[in-house]
Amino acid sequence: MTKPLIVAVDPGQSGAIVWTQDFVEIYIEKMPPTDVEVAQLIASFHVLNKNVQVYLEEPSTAGYGPLIPASSIARLAQNFGLIYGACIAMGFALHRVKPQAWQAAHGLGKKKDHGKGWKNHLKAKALELWPTQTVSLANADALLILDAARRGAIN
Question: Residue 57's domain spans which residues?
Answer without folding.
Answer: 5-150
